[in-house]
Write a structure and sequence with these properties.
By secondary structure, the chain is α/β, with parallel strands linked by helices. The protein is built from 16 helices and 17 strands. The chain has helices at 5-8, 30-35, 37-43, 78-90, 109-114, 176-191, 241-252, 268-271, 289-292, 298-311, 330-334, 336-346, 376-380, 420-424, 430-443, 445-449, and strands at 11-14, 47-50, 94-99, 128-129, 150-153, 158-161, 196-199, 259-262, 284-285, 319-321, 352-356, 451-458, 461-468, 471-478, 484-496, 505-512, 517-522. Helix 6 (176-191) packs parallel to helix 7 (241-252). The chain is globular and about 75 Å long. The chain binds 1-O-alpha-D-glucopyranosyl-D-fructose.
């Protein structure tokens, strides 16, 4: 069966604020994204996911939305979004928006109304509760950003719940009126031609209606996020959330060929629940297993791939992610050499890859001096390694001040990464490596739609086989900086992190260079699929 665009394509994640500024205010904007769509075409990706650009006080950089059906002037206008959608579609690129349904800004008119008093018709659009009988918050729920997940409202003398900042009050998804209003927002963008949504914290949308305390986390390590002191038993992955995911998907299914991507930070066996009953959930519940992997070695990666593939429900389409705007960059986690190995795995494992902007340059986390920290996660719980500014630095387009990103003062310092223009002129650059790899992926449909099997770790070498469209490809990835020999059948080297290997024939024993990953095309073509 032919694959849908979101199955065979590669998603490119644009953190708009750091992508391209066109009005010299130091912040990226929608006209900037339009002006750089040719980069996405040059690179060879198929869809662009835009981080939130809705009106927002920006206390959490746009994840505190004050109007779901507009564009913040910082980023542009609705007309700019319409122009972006048209320009992307003209290039064959799909457009995915970031949908933030779990909470609004405290400046959203709905919350201002709800906060107006207990008799407000929107009181129950949010989660309000009396304090504990002995005083203090209703229970022990914690914010992801540290501190209690409850804030006292003196005027109405109740607490309101917020999984994140007090400026991000939780919407009450048990209230049908909230669902109607939030599904209206989906349709507003679907009518404008948006091809899908990445749904923020989809696994958090329902909280326990008895407001029970979360249990202590016996594995909490002091010094890590205070949120992890508890197991979020009553504030995450509640059974009722699946009904909401199915209702969201039903809204998208009113339009042709749309995709629902869910941000889900859960172990594999719970993650796959978000495909929904009978596949009526999210088509792509984000698979963050490679993002959250404590180490980077063949055995651990092979285990993840095998367990994830085995856990997928019938028809569940896999996907892989290496990083995003919330997590340390892959090149900082595994080093620049292994970042090429990681990119090859991202683009050869079975399923839809999502590439975080800048990873195609091998961008690393930029250290941010205390005085320049802007991320509320770091400001509220400093020095715990939770700050996200380092992975959000502006995209370096060219050498020189502003790096071609802005002619103004950048909202966040620009790192020391090699700019795209320099990398485009260097055949051995990470940018050209990623571009060439994406071209191989496009030329060999076994990589997009083929089966995967023979997943194994031979010492430091991860290997797996991709079969489809009459060809058998085998990937070997040396996850260490030392040479490693593997047994291979007679094959041509289709691609390698070490370009001098490409095009050669190998047989019997192949000694992989340190940090080398290869795609071999077996001489024994498989007939059939
Ligand atoms: O992040 C949710 C998420 O991953 C949190 O659990 C994470 O711990 C948080 O980023 C703090 O490090 C999504 C968005 O990707 C993130 O940028 C927002 O800040 C958050 O939701 C609230 O909307």
């Amino acid at each position: 069966m032919a694959l849908a665009w979101w199955q065979k394509g590669v998603v490119y994640h644009v953190y708009v604020r750091s992508f391209q500024d066109t009005d010299a205010n130091g912040t990226g904007d929608l006209p900037g994204v339009i002006s750089r769509l040719d980069h996405l075409t040059w690179l060879g990706v198929d869809a662009v996911w835009l981080s939130p650009v809705y009106p927002s006080p920006m206390t959490d950089f746009g994840y505190d939305v004050s109007d779901y059906c507009n564009v913040d002037p910082l980023f542009g206008t609705l007309a700019d979004m319409d122009a972006l959608i048209a320009a992307a579609h003209a290039r064959g690129l799909k457009v995915i928006l970031d949908y933030v349904p779990n909470h609004t800004s405290d400046q959203h008119p709905w919350f201002i109304d709800s906060r107006g008093g207990r008799s407000s018709t929107k009181r129950d659009w949010y989660i309000w509760h009396d304090g504990a009988s002995g005083g203090g918050p209703p229970n022990n729920w914690q914010s992801h950003f540290g501190g209690s997940a409850w804030t006292w409202d003196e005027a109405s003398r109740q607490y309101f719940h917020h999984s994140f900042l007090p400026t991000q009050p939780e919407l009450n998804w048990r209230n049908p009126q909230v669902r109607v209003a939030m599904f209206h927002a989906l349709r507003f963008w679907l009518e404008r031609g948006v091809d899908g949504f990445r749904v923020d914290v989809i696994w958090l949308l329902i909280k326990d209606d008895q407001f029970r305390d979360n249990p202590p986390n016996p594995r909490y390590t002091p010094g890590s996020s205070s949120y992890d002191q508890l197991i979020p038993l009553y504030t995450a992955d509640r059974p009722e959330v699946q009904e909401i995911v199915a209702e969201m998907r039903a809204v998208l299914d009113e339009y042709p060929d749309r995709v629902l991507i869910g941000e889900v930070y859960l172990p594999i066996e719970r993650l796959v629940a978000y495909y929904g009953l009978d596949g009526r959930g999210a088509q792509l519940p984000f698979n963050f297993q490679l993002v959250q992997l404590p180490g980077w070695d063949a055995v651990a990666i092979a285990d993840i791939v095998v367990r994830y593939e085995a856990a997928l429900p019938p028809g569940g389409w896999p996907n892989w992610v290496l990083g995003n705007h919330d997590r340390p960059r892959i090149a900082s986690r595994v080093g620049s050499a292994q970042a090429r190995v990681a990119a090859l795995l991202l683009l050869t494992l079975r399923g839809t890859p999502t590439l975080y902007m800048g990873d195609e340059l091998g961008m690393v986390d930029t250290p941010i001096p205390d005085a320049e920290v802007q991320d509320p996660a770091e400001l509220r719980e400093p020095k715990r390694g939770l700050g996200r500014d380092p992975e959000r630095t502006p995209f370096p387009w060219q050498p020189g001040p502003g790096a071609g990103f802005t002619s103004g003062v950048p909202w966040l310092r620009i790192g020391a990464d090699t700019p795209l223009s320099v990398q485009r002129d260097d055949p051995a650059s990470m940018a050209n490596f990623c571009r060439d790899l994406l071209a191989v992926r496009r030329r060999h449909p076994a990589l997009a739609g083929g089966t995967i099997d023979c997943v194994a770790a031979q010492g430091p070498v991860l290997s797996f086989r991709r079969i489809g469209h009459g060809e058998t490809l085998v990937v070997f990835a040396n996850t260490t900086g030392t040479p490693a020999a593997v047994e291979v059948s007679a094959s041509a080297v289709l691609f390698s992190t070490h370009t001098d290997r490409i095009g050669k024939t190998v047989a019997a024993t192949l000694t992989l260079h340190p940090d080398e990953a290869v795609i071999l095309q077996s001489r024994k073509a498989q007939h059939g699929r």
